[in-house]
Design a protein that fits this description.
Elements: H1 6-13, E1 19-22, H2 25-34, E2 39-42, E3 55-61, H3 71-81, E4 82-91, H4 98-109, H5 122-129, H6 144-147
Parallel strand pairs: 1-2, 3-4
Protein backbone atom coordinates (compact mmCIF):
# COMPACT_ATOMS: atom_id res chain seq x y z
CA UNK A 1 0.00 0.00 0.00
CA UNK A 2 3.02 2.30 -0.05
CA UNK A 3 2.55 2.79 -3.77
CA UNK A 4 5.26 4.90 -5.30
CA UNK A 5 6.38 6.33 -1.95
CA UNK A 6 4.86 9.79 -1.91
CA UNK A 7 3.54 9.49 1.63
CA UNK A 8 6.70 7.78 2.90
CA UNK A 9 8.85 10.55 1.42
CA UNK A 10 6.68 13.19 3.09
CA UNK A 11 6.90 11.42 6.47
CA UNK A 12 10.64 10.75 6.21
CA UNK A 13 11.33 14.44 5.52
CA UNK A 14 9.64 15.12 8.86
CA UNK A 15 11.80 12.64 10.76
CA UNK A 16 9.86 9.38 10.49
CA UNK A 17 11.66 6.08 10.05
CA UNK A 18 9.47 4.42 7.42
CA UNK A 19 8.92 0.95 6.03
CA UNK A 20 6.65 0.70 3.01
CA UNK A 21 4.70 -2.36 2.02
CA UNK A 22 2.88 -3.17 -1.17
CA UNK A 23 1.75 -6.28 -3.01
CA UNK A 24 3.04 -4.92 -6.34
CA UNK A 25 6.69 -5.29 -7.32
CA UNK A 26 6.13 -2.52 -9.87
CA UNK A 27 4.96 -0.11 -7.19
CA UNK A 28 8.00 -1.00 -5.08
CA UNK A 29 10.26 -0.19 -8.05
CA UNK A 30 8.61 3.23 -8.26
CA UNK A 31 8.94 3.55 -4.47
CA UNK A 32 12.71 2.99 -4.65
CA UNK A 33 13.08 5.38 -7.58
CA UNK A 34 11.48 8.14 -5.53
CA UNK A 35 12.57 7.14 -2.03
CA UNK A 36 16.02 5.61 -2.39
CA UNK A 37 16.71 5.28 1.33
CA UNK A 38 13.34 3.65 2.04
CA UNK A 39 12.85 0.14 3.29
CA UNK A 40 10.02 -1.88 1.82
CA UNK A 41 8.38 -5.28 1.94
CA UNK A 42 6.46 -6.97 -0.86
CA UNK A 43 3.53 -8.62 0.89
CA UNK A 44 -0.20 -8.72 1.43
CA UNK A 45 -1.59 -6.18 3.90
CA UNK A 46 -2.94 -9.01 6.01
CA UNK A 47 0.37 -10.90 6.21
CA UNK A 48 3.23 -8.48 6.93
CA UNK A 49 6.45 -10.10 8.12
CA UNK A 50 7.22 -7.71 10.96
CA UNK A 51 7.27 -8.49 14.66
CA UNK A 52 4.26 -8.03 16.93
CA UNK A 53 4.17 -4.55 18.43
CA UNK A 54 7.00 -3.29 16.22
CA UNK A 55 5.53 -0.10 14.72
CA UNK A 56 4.36 3.19 16.20
CA UNK A 57 1.90 4.08 13.48
CA UNK A 58 0.51 2.92 10.17
CA UNK A 59 -0.52 5.32 7.42
CA UNK A 60 -2.73 4.16 4.55
CA UNK A 61 -3.80 6.59 1.84
CA UNK A 62 -6.33 5.03 -0.52
CA UNK A 63 -5.35 1.41 0.05
CA UNK A 64 -7.98 -0.23 2.23
CA UNK A 65 -10.72 -0.05 -0.38
CA UNK A 66 -8.64 -2.38 -2.57
CA UNK A 67 -8.89 -5.15 0.04
CA UNK A 68 -12.56 -6.11 -0.09
CA UNK A 69 -13.61 -8.52 1.36
CA UNK A 70 -10.48 -8.72 3.55
CA UNK A 71 -10.36 -5.25 5.09
CA UNK A 72 -10.80 -6.64 8.61
CA UNK A 73 -7.97 -9.13 8.01
CA UNK A 74 -5.69 -6.18 7.23
CA UNK A 75 -6.93 -4.23 10.27
CA UNK A 76 -6.26 -7.27 12.46
CA UNK A 77 -2.72 -7.42 11.06
CA UNK A 78 -2.24 -3.70 11.71
CA UNK A 79 -3.43 -4.21 15.28
CA UNK A 80 -0.86 -6.99 15.70
CA UNK A 81 1.95 -4.78 14.38
CA UNK A 82 1.16 -1.69 16.44
CA UNK A 83 2.89 -0.92 19.70
CA UNK A 84 0.63 -0.25 22.66
CA UNK A 85 -1.05 3.13 22.07
CA UNK A 86 0.01 3.05 18.41
CA UNK A 87 -2.10 4.73 15.75
CA UNK A 88 -3.53 4.03 12.33
CA UNK A 89 -4.21 6.92 10.00
CA UNK A 90 -6.16 6.28 6.85
CA UNK A 91 -7.94 8.19 4.12
CA UNK A 92 -10.38 6.23 1.99
CA UNK A 93 -13.40 6.75 -0.22
CA UNK A 94 -16.49 6.27 1.96
CA UNK A 95 -19.52 4.36 0.75
CA UNK A 96 -22.68 6.37 0.53
CA UNK A 97 -20.91 9.67 -0.09
CA UNK A 98 -21.60 11.83 -3.12
CA UNK A 99 -18.11 11.17 -4.59
CA UNK A 100 -18.76 7.44 -4.17
CA UNK A 101 -21.65 7.67 -6.63
CA UNK A 102 -19.26 9.03 -9.26
CA UNK A 103 -16.60 6.49 -8.28
CA UNK A 104 -19.01 3.56 -8.85
CA UNK A 105 -19.88 4.89 -12.30
CA UNK A 106 -16.20 5.40 -13.11
CA UNK A 107 -15.30 1.84 -12.01
CA UNK A 108 -17.69 0.46 -14.64
CA UNK A 109 -15.62 1.99 -17.44
CA UNK A 110 -12.05 1.93 -16.14
CA UNK A 111 -10.39 -1.49 -16.63
CA UNK A 112 -7.78 -0.68 -13.97
CA UNK A 113 -10.15 -1.50 -11.13
CA UNK A 114 -11.12 -4.98 -10.00
CA UNK A 115 -14.68 -6.04 -9.15
CA UNK A 116 -13.85 -6.33 -5.43
CA UNK A 117 -12.80 -2.69 -5.17
CA UNK A 118 -15.31 -0.36 -3.66
CA UNK A 119 -15.54 2.40 -1.11
CA UNK A 120 -15.39 1.41 2.53
CA UNK A 121 -18.20 1.59 5.03
CA UNK A 122 -16.60 3.42 7.94
CA UNK A 123 -19.55 2.77 10.25
CA UNK A 124 -19.18 -0.97 9.65
CA UNK A 125 -15.42 -0.79 10.24
CA UNK A 126 -15.95 1.07 13.51
CA UNK A 127 -18.62 -1.38 14.65
CA UNK A 128 -16.57 -4.48 13.80
CA UNK A 129 -13.32 -3.16 15.28
CA UNK A 130 -14.43 -1.24 18.37
CA UNK A 131 -12.81 -3.80 20.69
CA UNK A 132 -9.40 -3.26 19.07
CA UNK A 133 -9.29 0.41 18.18
CA UNK A 134 -10.45 3.73 19.55
CA UNK A 135 -11.64 5.87 16.66
CA UNK A 136 -10.64 9.35 17.79
CA UNK A 137 -11.01 11.60 14.76
CA UNK A 138 -13.36 11.10 11.88
CA UNK A 139 -13.50 13.60 9.07
CA UNK A 140 -15.13 13.66 5.68
CA UNK A 141 -13.06 15.43 3.07
CA UNK A 142 -12.33 15.26 -0.59
CA UNK A 143 -13.80 16.36 -3.83
CA UNK A 144 -14.00 15.23 -7.41
CA UNK A 145 -10.22 15.60 -7.82
CA UNK A 146 -9.78 12.70 -5.38
CA UNK A 147 -11.63 10.47 -7.82
CA UNK A 148 -9.00 10.85 -10.52
CA UNK A 149 -5.95 10.07 -8.37
Amino acid sequence: MCGSGGTATYLAKRGANTVGFDISFRQLELYYAKFKSGNSICCYAYNICLLNGSVDSIVVIGGLHHLHPRINDALNEFHRLLKEHGSIYFCEPHSGSLPDIFRRIWYRFDPLFLPNESAIDINKIISENKDYFKFKVLGYYGNLAYLII
